[in-house]
Model the fold of this input.
Amino acid sequence: MKKIIIVLLSAAFMVSLFGLSYAEDLRIDGSTTVLPIAQKAAEVFMKKNPNIKVFVSGSGSGTGIKALIDGTTNIATSSREAKDKEVASAKEKGVTLTGHKVALDGIVPVVHPSMKMTDITIEQLRDIYNGKIKSWKELGGPNRPISVVSRDTSSGTYEVWEEKVLKGDKVRADALLVASSGQTIQTIAHNKFAIGYVGIGYLDKSVKSLKVAGKSASANSVRDNSWPIARPLFMYTNGKPSGTIEKFMDFMMSKEGQKVVNEVKYVSIK
Done:
């Protein structure tokens, strides 16, 4: 009887090892802007490929690219292009940063729903963020100080905002820096006199999006570049993807993968 039990346990152990040998893990890390796309895509992808486990996290574009360079993630999501210094750092470690454009996005200024303001210019946004405009009264609003919400410097969203809005100016010293798009939304929703900026996919009823120079952020205005703060969103791999990574990237670029982009309120490239 003991021999039979030992044989059965050994067989069960071998079966479990056999099963594990066919299980594959895929790790995705990076931009909090791209996070909703990556999470939904992973969910759909795993249903189609139950033998593959996809782990998704959002620690920021710069952190995700560093993780890819260090070999701790398979795919880095980024809301901006890799920097020259990142490409050089990767090359030193034998990594080739290869960007895949998976979606389009518009960065949208947001305020509390109670704010009567509906439209703003790039110049006004710049002066709010560099500290030249300090009160809503200067913009026709209440006589209250503007609470500026911005992203930390590892954020790809911040870097695009810095390039397209600040144009080299520094963010005012008293700005509240938050770590994610979700935190920006939560902060604005609970502060009647705050202003912030998020990717178009994060917009919801808890905040009010502002037009920029009379233009509304939409799929069409992002796709035709008439929205002034538009950008591509990326997934980076080490060189040309293969195996499980290639399988996921092929899904991401497929009709079904691009449908996921639209479902989470971003703009598909196809």
In short: Confidence is low (pLDDT under 50) at residues 1-22.
